[in-house]
Amino acid sequence: MLFRWPLESETTITISQEVVKTTARVISWGIFGTAIQWSRDSQGRSVEEMMQDVLLVVTASLAPIID
Fold this sequence. Notes:
It is a single chain. The chain is mainly α. It has 3 helices and no strands. Helix 2 (17-40) runs antiparallel to helix 3 (47-66). The protein is elongated. The chain starts with a helix and ends with a helix. The mean pLDDT is 81.
């Protein structure tokens, strides 16, 4: 999904597939790593709170590609 989304969006910026792939990998591993860390020690945060923060970071990371 993260790989296809920027390629399917209607953007005026030309971005190479390699940049899109790398961005998708970094974001995917960021989500995965955050989930693992949260599962080990949630520090009292609900899954909804954590996902809201993660989605903010993902959106900010993808903004240059999908703007």
